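Notes on consecutive records. When two proteins share a document, each keeps its own sequence and its own token line. Never mix them. Below: protein one.
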Amino acid sequence: MNLNQKYQHRMSSKRIKLVRADQTPLSNKEVLISQKKHKFLFGCGAFDSIPLMNGEFQGEDQKFMEERFEKWLALFNAATMPFYWGGFEPERGKPKTKPMMKAVEWLKENGVEVKGHPLCWHTNTAPWLLDLSNEEILKVQLERIHRDVTDFKGKIDMWDVINEVVIMPIFDKYDNGITRICKDKGRIGLIREVFAAAKEANPNAILLLNDFNTSISYEILIDGCLEAGIPIDVIGIQSHQHQGYWGLEKTHEVLERYSHFGLPIHFTENTLISGSLMPPEIEDLNDFQVEEWPTTPEGEERQAREVVQMYQTLFEHPSVEAITTWNIVDGKWLKAPAGFLRKDNSSKPAYDELLKLIKQEWWTTKNLVTDAEGYINVSGFKGDYEVITGDCKGQFTLDRKDETETIIIL
């Protein structure tokens, strides 16, 4: 199977007519077709863009973080941003909207699609909710969704609406307001409320249900939500593989079970380790607390192989529309060596190999010649393109097949 057959669903074609401003065709001209962005979302957490864009780094630290984000922007076209309620609004009525907005606007200016994560979750939620009755908790939760989705409309039009609902009503590590109302409303009852609020605030937003639980329990929950008419746009699947790579068998099995819903799938939180693996007996990954968790040369080679295989597998599957690695750099969540960069910003093999996939193997650049009427036929990976002839440029998008478009070259 050649590349075009394997990834045919990721590709498109278009007949384009190139004309000057006066509508004169550019006849028999050599042109360069250059892809600028994928339609497929290759994502990563971009939490550090908030302090970077708000002047929290100085001198060499600022330069260091700018260099990190140069590598970030070279590889990724989608960002997940932290809206954990406890950190975003630690004091009731004082959300950190402005610093978040600065970072989001900077990402958008750099061509990055931004997703907010999450609007409702029992972990990292606002501690002041415990002072309220369950009725009041639900009220302020829905108000929070209306406020944040409205404030960021046009900047963030994709949200993890509610996170990890399978465990939410039985979560017992500590008391929290969201588990309280989930017990009251039930899983589907709460999901219905928060999705309705998000949809009302931004009818065009892409709304995700997100969970780490890939068992039958999550399938039953999704099925119940769809039966109830809840407007889930995308199924979010977390794949934190701290205890070892899923491998092809499990990955294909998960894809088969969740693709039957007929909804797009996003792998929302992906991690693959480049050091020693977490012991298999750990049930909650958060229970694994270590002082250091170093990357190793052997682990980095293993991580690169696994990253390439997993991305190839997911990119090949027609239901998958996004893959998000959780951290670009080592040492973030649980201090795990799960990044594609080491702590000193140097690239690990996984970064180099993934860059080759996304920007070379899955990237379209062509030299073509227009015909006498100024037409060219373009085929390539779906996404945004630039057409250049001499010092003149134009833009177009490859998405649906067999379109015809006229482009004015300026």
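Protein two starts on the next line and is unrelated to protein one.
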Amino acid sequence: MGRLKDKVAIITGGAGGIGIATAKLFLDQGAMVVIADISKEALEKASLEINHENLSYCVVDVSKPKDNEKMVAHTLDVHNRIDIFFANAGIEGTSKPIAEYPDDIFDSVIDVNLKGVWYGCKYVIPKMKAGGSVMITSSVAGLKGFAGLGAYVSTKHAIIGIMRVAALEFASNKIRVNTIHPGPVNNDMMRRIEKDISPENPGEVLKGFETTIPFGRYVDSNEIAQMALFLASEDSKMITGCMHIVDGGMLTN
């Protein structure tokens, strides 16, 4: 315990696999954590799993400015400070070529993955303590293309731009801003992607992805949490405006 002692962290997408793993690790390291997500039921379930006195939750639609303001107000009311912001909320959309991609799903992916990060940075970072840290979950899909995942790929590329601008704009307050780029993660999102690509044989999709990873397996949520801990801690105090890849070597192919 101790790398985040007395720090206050907000984690969006907090009821998902990466969010839960990161909340547990941050709490173990002495932080006070607010998890935010769109479903109260999912947040209650996650809170029971995490089971820590320094955890609270806030029901938030990250695509809505007012909800981001509510999340900030909740955190300041409970803890009177914000040191760490992990903009982790995201959705995958569907697997369709650009020419066939449903407009409503495209809009939803833009709303959550792109606007959600934008509004989080807009409303959270100005309220953070000097020397704080912001991590944004992008993806290997933010660094290369994947046919059929155009909306997801587009948003994950775009938030690198937000990261770079925020790193410059908040540098005077010594606030670090970085992106994390997971490869395929062994979680519910990848199960949905696998099934969407091949409803009849999602297991073959999993095997296909694994053949592109030199380490031969998906990333575990805890491995993303470890990267988030490094970036949240003072160990990364001179690292900002950077992309941090956790993919088992996938991008070397």
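For the record: The chain has a mean pLDDT of 96.
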